[in-house]
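fyi for ur records
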Amino acid sequence: MKKYELFGRYCDIFTKSMKWPKWDNLVYIDLFASAGVSKLVDNQKLIKTSSLIAASVPNKFNKYIVCEEIKELIDALEKRVGLYNKEDINKFEFIKGDCNKKVDKIISSIPDGKTLNFCFVDPYNFDIEFETIKKLASGGRKIDFLILIATHMAGHRNYHNYMKDENSTIEKFINNKNWRIPFKNGEKTIKDFGNFLAESYDENMKQIGYIIEPKLKCQIKTNDGHTLYYLAFYSKNQLGNEFYKKIEIYQNPQLKLF
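which gave:
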């Protein structure tokens, strides 16, 4: 739930601070949009997830580009947008398919002109290829990313499968075919795997021009203190980074997420 609270706060700050006339278009991009709602484990309450939260902030995005591989989920999301955000339905573009394969379609859907993009990347595991992120960030596009790096909930849990030479998941995730070497020669162990992934991702983002700061990466933990994943923010502009640093304390009574 904290993930969506932080996400909603950033959407609110982003749209309020960057709205016209600073930018002609503010575009929200969701690469793993799902169905728009999720059920909490502890009380079975349904809550809005990323795309519906992004559509709920007081200052609206000009366009929403949402991608989801599973047809039943994106169909459900489209119905919910029509139900809860009927006035914004024409601003939505629903793209059915794997975001890694649909990246050109996503890029072609971004409006021309003075456009600022915010992209949320929330895979369950490591289904996002770094080449996809790199392509979205290319061509002079102004785009900030909020990326879930599933270091522990997927990384540690499936470490031994990822270590098999025929498994290319991590190679594509961090764009490094030689990533196994320090683990095979004993320099690193399974305990280092999560931090290795997070640090590798930071280095990749730095190489394509993004500013890296420790305060831009938030650990999401279980109730008993175990790390599940990192929520990492990446921007090429220091102003975006300053916005993100404020989200832990930011409050807006108009912002209704759940």
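Strands lie at 25-30, 37-39, 46-48, 63-68, 92-96, 115-121, 142-149, 217-221, 227-234. thats all i got for now
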